[in-house]
């Protein structure tokens, strides 16, 4: 964050453009944007400026249009760095190569042969005087012809159709107009990063290798932003993997011509479609076309990065492992916004409302956002790296081989799974490494990590400067604002967030602000979570003693107790957050030293310099625990969500009069957990309304499945069938055999109590017997309703029969919580 002492400046004048004409890149002179100390040594440029509007300046508007139509300078998009695209016949060339792909031809032949043999076995083939082999061969040829027709239709619906250079010029102009009307301060990039990217692109083009862009995904604007950057830099536009839910009339055709390839949201049990996607990705990577997909799968509706989805990434990796493609260049990309357009719709979805189906009318009716002023977009590119090199390094580590031998190793199924997971999390780590923390994220984080109803302007500025320093100290980046004073940055963030998110109390001697919509503000707070997750876990683990009160001595925590609780929490959240890879012991020691250096905690060590006692420092107590509380406030909503998920499982113990082996619809179980959470929140037994969000509860249930707390059954024959679940026998809560009431004991109860140790206690709420009784009663009420509905829609016999017949795959416990050692992950 810039120094508050610097004079305000006119931001647009200090954000010069990159001039890119043909092969030449010119950086116009400007002042350094990192503040007086230039702490992170990253220069940035405003790459995309606002364009003229017809009503405001018709002559300038017409001039800009004529420049794009004529293809003046960089607008021509002629000397593209990469393989040739946007020429007549491009689509047919790709289709032709794809139809001749060996994998696809082999799969068509295999399916046709299998089908013809089935028909022969069932007596459906007629010999007509010939042999059975002749009849089967003829029928196989007929089926292959039919399958090729099916494939031809699939290909036409799937492949991008980048045919017209004139079209892409117009599309660039149109999309830039829309984007800069919404994000009025344009797109900002690091000059150093884009110059490096162009250099890598030139080398990749010479080697006929693809750059695989793997961006973070928070908004539909992500598609547009990265395409605009590549166009502006003269780099070949990537072909973007997009879900066919966006392939709606008019818009779908436009996006397909601009670089979108459509794929189904779910492949189901369709081996032909699976092979077609693999063949298409092979074709693109083999020809060196740039490629883009979102490693998180869908858009993050909670602000932070989601766990990696391995579908498309698996196809890319298989292209390399099989040898069909020599290499590809991986480039993680961070895309951050001052404000995300879709956050209001995200909140509705997270609170349980069904996601509306995309259609053109909704898209057009959202045109009101085009007149908003939502700040700017920041795009950062991690240093690209070779996928082949990554595979070789991982093979050397997994198989304990020298690099020379590891380059030729064949991965087994288990090892390939490890490789794929390592790839996914390395990409996410790279995105986090280059992410910029926007001022709206800073303000949102401060407002949600302070005690009290509101905060004065001077205190908000002070805490924002403190948080900016902490972000930098953790290796993060804070968005630069050209040495503007911090007060100016705060005002700008408050303006972008707007009165629906942050309110101001009128009539007071100092401007005082408060959170209006805490749920929506949590989206922006979560953008900073990855930087402080280890500090947050340590603080939450200490809280189990600190909340007991009774003076400093009574609040001390032994190192062993702390390490045990930190290990438990880190395992609980291992699918929720991305942790440093060094292991529990190393990360815990590093975190303790950092908190000790910042005077948040005091660590007593023995003669061997090993920590024995951890407690709050005197300085932290004197300042009202504001820094310690900050870390707790970051993690508490997630702890609440896991606690809520566990409480909801207590209610899924079958009532005495219900079948004991009844399976419950997973979605209905999660919906009931959300309903329970809303009830507990309004009755005062849940501190954070954010804890009821659907995404976090879904992650909690997934973690329970991995732990073996719940069993999950999926229908093998029908991928669209509902997923069922039940509490595992070893974790089943107990009921009083006479009254049928839930009893506060058992393995699941102990698990819930362990989570509750780090859970925030409110001013008027303690986790005592009264609360336990009230919460158990409420979860029982909600759970009984779930069982009532389940009994009315299915039968125990039917479920048992399906499982016995093998039509459903039942989950089993995966990797359990590990003992504390150097290999445990924090």
TrEMBL record:
Q: Does the keyword Transferase apply?
A: yes
Location(s), subcellular: Endomembrane system
Single GO MF annotation: glycerol-3-phosphate O-acyltransferase activity
Domain (Phospholipid/glycerol acyltransferase) spans 211-338
Checking Pfam families in the record gives: Acyltransferase, GPAT_C
Q: Is Repeat found in the keyword set?
A: no
**A GO term from the CC aspect:** mitochondrial membrane
UniProt-listed InterPro entries:
GPAT/DHAPAT, GPAT/DHAPAT_C, GPAT/DHAPAT_LPLAT, Plipid/glycerol_acylTrfase
- According to Swiss-Prot or TrEMBL, what is its membrane topology? Peripheral membrane protein
Family note: Belongs to the GPAT/DAPAT family.
Q: What is this protein called?
A: Phospholipid/glycerol acyltransferase domain-containing protein
Q: Give the organism, scientific name.
A: Polytolypa hystricis (strain UAMH7299)
């Amino acid at each position: 964050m810039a120094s508050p002492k610097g004079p305000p400046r006119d931001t647009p004048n200090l954000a010069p453009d990159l001039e890119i004409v043909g092969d030449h890149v010119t950086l116009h002179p400007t002042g350094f944007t990192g503040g007086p100390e230039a702490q992170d040594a990253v220069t940035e440029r405003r790459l995309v400026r606002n364009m003229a509007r017809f009503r405001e300046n018709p002559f300038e508007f017409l001039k800009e249009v004529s420049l794009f139509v004529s293809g003046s300078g960089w607008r021509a998009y002629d000397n593209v760095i990469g393989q040739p695209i946007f020429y007549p016949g491009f689509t047919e060339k790709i289709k032709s190569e794809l139809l001749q792909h060996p994998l696809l031809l082999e799969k068509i032949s295999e399916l046709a042969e299998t089908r013809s043999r089935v028909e022969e076995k069932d007596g459906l083939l007629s010999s007509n005087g010939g042999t059975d082999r002749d009849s089967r061969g003829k029928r196989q040829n007929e089926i292959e012809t039919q399958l090729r027709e099916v494939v031809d239709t699939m290909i036409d619906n799937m492949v991008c159709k980048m045919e017209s250079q004139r079209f892409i010029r117009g599309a660039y102009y149109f999309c830039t107009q829309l984007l800069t009307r919404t994000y009025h301060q344009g797109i900002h990039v690091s000059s150093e990063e884009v110059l490096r990217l162009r250099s890598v692109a030139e080398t990749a083009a010479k080697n006929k290798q693809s750059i695989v862009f793997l961006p973070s995904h928070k908004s539909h604007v992500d598609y547009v932003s990265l395409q605009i950057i590549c166009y502006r830099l003269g780099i070949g536009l990537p072909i973007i993997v997009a879900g066919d839910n966006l392939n709606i009339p008019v818009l779908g055709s436009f996006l397909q011509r601009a670089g979108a390839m459509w794929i189904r949201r779910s492949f189901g049990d369709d081996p032909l479609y699976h092979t077609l996607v693999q063949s298409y990705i092979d074709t693109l990577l083999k020809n060196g076309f740039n490629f883009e997909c979102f490693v998180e799968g869908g858009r993050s509706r909670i602000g932070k990065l989601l766990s990696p989805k391995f579908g498309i990434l698996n196809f890319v990796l298989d292209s390399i492992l099989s040898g069909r493609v020599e290499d590809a260049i991986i480039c993680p990309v961070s895309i951050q916004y001052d404000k995300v357009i879709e956050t209001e719709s995200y909140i509705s979805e997270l609170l349980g409302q069904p996601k509306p189906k995309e259609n053109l009318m909704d898209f057009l009716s959202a045109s009101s956002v085009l007149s908003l002023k939502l700040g700017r977009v920041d795009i950062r590119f991690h240093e690209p790296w070779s996928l082949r090199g990554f595979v070789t390094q991982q093979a050397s580590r997994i198989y304990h081989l020298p690099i020379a031998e590891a380059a030729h190793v064949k991965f087994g199924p288990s090892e390939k799974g490890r490789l794929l997971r390592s790839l996914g999390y390395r990409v996410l780590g790279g995105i986090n490494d280059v992410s910029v923390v926007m001022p709206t994220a800073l303000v949102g984080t401060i407002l949600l990590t302070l005690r009290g109803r509101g905060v004065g302007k001077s205190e908000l500025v002070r805490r924002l400067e403190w948080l900016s320093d902490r972000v930098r100290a953790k290796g993060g980046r804070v968005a630069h604002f050209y040495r503007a004073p911090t007060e100016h940055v705060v005002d700008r963030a408050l303006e972008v967030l707007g009165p629906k998110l942050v309110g101001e109390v009128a009539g007071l001697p100092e401007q005082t602000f408060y959170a209006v919509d805490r749920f929506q503000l949590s989206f922006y707070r979560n953008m900073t979570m990855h930087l402080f997750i280890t500090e947050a876990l340590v603080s939450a683990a200490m809280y189990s003693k600190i909340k007991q009160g009774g003076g400093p001595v009574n609040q001390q925590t032994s190192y062993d107790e702390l390490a045990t609780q930190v290990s438990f929490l880190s395992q609980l959240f291992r699918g929720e957050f991305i942790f440093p890879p060094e292991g529990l012991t190393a990360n815990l020691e590093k975190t303790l030293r950092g908190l000790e250096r910042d005077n948040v905690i005091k660590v007593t060590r023995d003669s061997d310099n090993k920590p024995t006692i951890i407690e709050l420092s005197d300085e932290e107590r004197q300042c009202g625990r504001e820094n310690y509380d900050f870390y707790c406030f970051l993690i508490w909503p997630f702890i609440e969500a896991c606690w809520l998920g566990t409480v909801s499982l207590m209610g899924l113990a079958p009532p005495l009069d219900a079948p004991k082996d009844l399976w419950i619809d997973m979605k209905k179980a999660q919906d009931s957990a959300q309903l329970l959470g809303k009830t507990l929140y309004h009755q005062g037994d849940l501190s954070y309304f954010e804890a009821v969000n659907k995404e976090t509860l879904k992650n909690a249930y997934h973690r329970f499945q991995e732990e073996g707390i719940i069993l999950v059954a999926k229908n093998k024959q029908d991928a669209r069938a509902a997923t069922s679940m039940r509490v595992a026998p070893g974790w089943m809560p107990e009921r009083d055999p006479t009254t049928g009431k839930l009893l506060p004991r058992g393995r699941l109860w102990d698990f819930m109590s362990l989570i509750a140790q780090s859970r925030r206690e409110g001013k008027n709420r303690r986790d005592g017997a009264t609360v336990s009784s009230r919460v158990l009663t409420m979860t029982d009420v909600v759970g009984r309703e779930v069982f009532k509905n389940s009994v009315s829609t299915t039968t125990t016999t039917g479920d048992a029969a399906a499982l016995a017949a093998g039509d459903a795959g039942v989950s089993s416990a995966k990797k359990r919580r590990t003992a504390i050692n150097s290999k445990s992950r924090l």
